[in-house]
Design goal:
Low-confidence stretches: none
Enzyme class: transferase
Number of strands: 4
Order of helices and strands: EHEHEEHHHHHHHH
Number of helices: 10
Shape: globular
Distance between the termini: 32 Å
CATH topology of the largest domain: Glutathione S-transferase Yfyf (Class Pi), Chain A, domain 2
Helix content: 40-55%
CATH class of the largest domain: Mainly Alpha
EC number: 2.5.1.18
Strand content: 5-15%
Protein name: glutathione transferase
CATH architecture of the largest domain: Up-down Bundle
Structural class: alpha+beta
Catalytic activity: RX + glutathione = an S-substituted glutathione + a halide anion + H(+)
InterPro entries: Glutathione-S-Trfase_C-like (IPR010987), Glutathione-S-Trfase_C_sf (IPR036282), Glutathione_S-Trfase (IPR040079), Glutathione_S-Trfase_N (IPR004045), GST_C (IPR004046), Thioredoxin-like_sf (IPR036249)
Length: 213
């Protein structure tokens, strides 16, 4: 049985959403953060040597890193659903967004979040560089959504799932308004209307809806 080990208010909602889109059966186990430190409990950190969220277990194997988990689930259980065919025009764009999400976009955003918490001045050259990299991500998304309905093309793919965190929770944590990004605003509404997305929101409750909070 596939088990999703969900740490409260983490990025594992993308794994739940993918499983719902693929129609997979899974067990959902919720873990709460320490109320003082906000860290994962030891029980969760012991699930995988990386000690990070999310984690899934499948056939007595534990996997961490959301991008790796998503690619594993798509390859093992996708049966040709959601991901573009490697020979399709959308495939290279799909792969770009799948890796850009965590490799550049989220990384820049999280570093900015930490810099803000530490009180770094925005005039600092390093912070300015991070701001530029993070803002460029929104420009890329806005431009792509002006050309196609979804990030990889005209149909929904896992790239839209993995990009949810930097476009929702992280964006709001950095107080980035959607006023300059009308294509993105409409796109997020489309995503939130998907039945699988709505099932995900119910599953992770009381964690907030990533798009509508």
């Amino acid at each position: 049985m596939l088990t999703i080990h969900h740490l409260a208010e983490s990025q594992s909602e993308r794994i739940v959403w993918l499983c719902e889109e693929l129609g997979l059966d899974y067990e959902f186990r919720r873990y709460e953060r320490d109320p003082d430190t906000k860290l994962a409990p030891r029980e969760y950190r012991n699930l995988h040597p990386a000690g990070t969220a999310p984690v899934v277990t499948d056939q007595d194997q534990a996997m961490a890193e959301s991008g790796a988990i998503m690619e594993y689930l798509i390859a093992r259980y996708g049966d040709g659903k959601l991901a573009p065919d490697p020979d399709s025009h959308d495939f290279s764009r799909y792969k770009f967004w799948m890796h850009y999400a965590n490799g550049s976009f989220t990384a820049a955003g999280l570093t900015l979040l930490v810099a803000n918490m530490l009180g770094r001045n925005k005039s600092n050259e390093t912070v300015e560089g991070l701001l530029d990299r993070y803002s460029r991500g929104f420009d890329l998304v806005e431009d792509q959504l002006g050309r196609t309905d979804y990030l990889a093309g005209e149909r929904f793919t896992p790239a839209d799932i993995i990009m949810l965190y930097p476009l929702s929770n992280l964006r709001k944590g950095l107080d980035v308004s959607l006023d300059k990004y009308p294509n993105l605003a409409r796109y997020l509404i489309r995503l939130s209307e998907r039945p699988a997305y709505q099932r995900m929101v119910k599953t992770i409750a009381p964690d907030p809806d990533p798009i509508h909070t």
